[in-house]
UniProtKB/TrEMBL annotation:
Pfam entry (one): EF_TS
Any GO MF annotation of the entry: translation elongation factor activity
Assigned keywords, A-Z: Elongation factor, Mitochondrion, Protein biosynthesis
Subcellular localization: Mitochondrion
Presence of keyword Protein biosynthesis: yes
GO biological process, one term: mitochondrial translational elongation
Name of the featured protein: Elongation factor Ts, mitochondrial
Residue ranges constituting the Translation elongation factor EFTs/EF1B dimerisation domain according to the UniProt record: 37-180
Family statement drawn from the similarity comment of this UniProt entry: Belongs to the EF-Ts family.
InterPro entries, per the entry: Transl_elong_EFTs/EF1B (IPR001816), Transl_elong_EFTs/EF1B_dimer (IPR014039)
């Protein structure tokens, strides 16, 4: 109630602006919660057409939130996202092993369009390309959300954190495709 009252006073009584104010406040508080321990949660699964499936572990701070419908919906959406994105191998860019990052950097540094650039500038260009392109393709949280491609999976998780007021982390997943070794 106090947050609503403050939002209305901050926006001069405009309900639309007050709603937007509250949404922004919720997303900023989601960033603050990211360091809190997540040891509860759910293991969810999704199977598409009996040919491809996924199991995913998503953690929350408390078991209470893990039983919330919004949290269960998030787990299901993340599992569907993994099934829909066969190139995804890691939850976040931070999870990509250093050997993969080094190899990608080495390949990118050898591209012809960068050879004429100074070393310092070339490294910055390579960093930008690697994070936005190659490493972003490998990370689940960097993918456009399949139900609404105007936001990323990371945005979806942040919105859920803001709604439930508790830290949430995708921990790990495994994808299964019929006939693959």
């Amino acid at each position: 109630m106090m947050d609503c009252k403050k939002a209305l006073s901050e926006t001069g009584g405009d309900i639309q602006k007050a709603q937007e104010f509250l949404r922004k406040k919720g997303l900023s508080s989601a960033d603050k919660k990211s360091s809190r321990l997540t040891a509860e949660g759910l293991i969810g699964s999704y199977i598409h057409d009996n040919r491809i499936g996924c199991m995913i572990e998503v953690n929350s701070e408390t078991g209470f939130v893990a039983h919330n419908e919004k949290f269960k919906e998030l787990v299901n959406d993340l599992a569907m996202q993994v099934v829909a994105c066969p190139q995804v191998e890691y939850v976040s860019i931070e999870d990509v092993p250093e050997c993969v990052v080094s190899k990608e950097k080495e390949i990118e540094m050898q591209r012809e369009d960068l050879q004429s650039k100074p070393e310092r500038i070339r490294e910055k260009i390579v960093e930008g390309r690697m994070i936005s392109k190659r490493l972003g393709v490998l990370a689940l949280l960097e993918q456009p959300f399949i139900k609404d491609d105007s936001k990323t999976v990371k945005d979806l998780v942040k919105e859920t954190i803001a709604t439930l007021r508790e830290n949430i982390k995708g921990r790990r997943f495994a994808r299964y495709t019929l006939g693959e070794n």
